[in-house]
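Q: Convert this sequence to structure tokens.
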Amino acid sequence: MKGEKKSTGLGIRFRLIMAMILLIVVSLVITSYFMATVNKEAIEDQTKAYQIFLSERFSDITKDMIDEACAELYGIEMILNDQRLTTDQTIRLAGYQIATSLSLEFVNIYDVQGTYVDSLVQTGETKPAFSPETLTAASREKARLQDCSPEPVTVYESRPYLPFIISWKAEDQIQGYLWTAIDIRPLSTKLDETLRIQFEDKLKAYLVNENFEIVVHPAWESIVTQRSRKEDPLFIKNIIPAYSPKNPVGISSDYSDEQGQWLVNTMVIPRINWLLIVQQQRKIAYRTLFIMQQKIALFGVLFVIGAAVIGALLGRGLTRPILAVAQGARELAAQKFSHRIKVNSRDEIGEMAETFNYLGQSLEEYDARIKQEIAIRSDLSRYLTPELVDAIIERKANLNLGGRRQNVAVLFADVVSFTPLSESHSPETVVALLNELFTILTQIIFRNKGMIDKFIGDCVMALFGVTEEDENSPAQAVKAAEEMIRWLDVGNKKWKRQYNVELQIAVAIHYGEVIIGNVGSEKRMEFTAIGDVVNTAARMEKIAKPNQILITETIRDHLSEHFSIKSHGRFALRGKSQDIDVFEVIP
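A:
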């Protein structure tokens, strides 16, 4: 009809724009939902993996503390059973063992009926007031059945102590019982440092005993009077119903209180049946997910606006890049972080594609970096001290070929009569023996701030004073050697029963200037020490007798009067033009 306006096509363009916007919104909502769901599960699994990593690490720390205390307690038993010693010599030697111990402060002696007899303490100290006057029948029976029996934690003057009891035997007859208690506050300090340094206070963790009383806490002083958690809603609802001391794997659960929502992981520490509780707020664990959702929402708005403008101008040209972005989002939601979106346009869609690619690259690099660092730390900690591992991870250590001059103490410890041992036992038995021996020797070396240079067959070479020059490194090396000799007395009892064999080692130590650094090629190098000091120590080890510690004059000059040393004579070593004075350390 005359006067009516014909359609100019704006209705179709409008419908196209609305259709594209609807497509974009629907695709974005769907992919965002799947991305959020998948990444939520991935982040939750990763968070629980970190919590389990903390649980396993602290389980190892606690186990090492218990093993060390038990080993030293068995060392006291050996001193008491040494018939060659007079009573005064036994008391002095036991007192020296306690004075130099890293964990023992005293040892109580009880007779066969569990009645208190006497105490071995450091000079000038007395038996702690919390020591029992008699041992219960249950404690004595437990000590007879177990090699080293931990008792329930006791708190005295705000200090937590973990008691231990062993049956004192001589010639397979029980002579009495040895009882001690070690201060476990260092565990609270270690837990606090781990949470602050490695996890930046993002985790909350503490340990409880079988009665659900806190025994280790990063803020021990503030909770010492409020240790029971039996009335805590978290324990009533989540932990107590599922707790089982025979299930070291532990449980993982979610929990909500007035402070927010939490991810909770628990793990039983074997042998003492302590329960490690690890908590993390969900808002912290899912922080990256929340940021991702905000970015998705922000770019979603930009994407819709851009689609409306470009849809009015280009129409069909937007279909292909939109689908490419949607597919890319799905790939990221499926954790295929290596996927990249290929969009040639330089508009908002291209910017979103670039952002998704950057997000995928960041997630891929972050995931790889976490896995690599965990693997590197685990591998390096088998050979190097924690200080040197941290220096390598933080790129503070020089990994180029070459080295520097530095004074270090070089220790060689060799298994005596290894060839007859190899001939009389199967290769599997020999390997098992060496692995167990080297594991303990490595722990002793690390505990005395040394590092493993290499294992040479049945011999271990260790260096002291590597990370930085230290005048105490000769004393640390000698102390490590003494601990090796003392520990063999404990280890040989086990090996005698298990393999009908006893091991002996010969130790030699020298101190002086070496070239220390990386030797090899750019693709395969080894961190080691080279010089006459190394050769001299290796030659001295050949003249050392079983369970004997030989040192040079340079080592002797750096030792304090606490070490017992005597001259061993003057020797001509192979490859040396001059004879050298050799001294023996009496453990």
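DSSP finds 16 helices and 19 strands in the chain.
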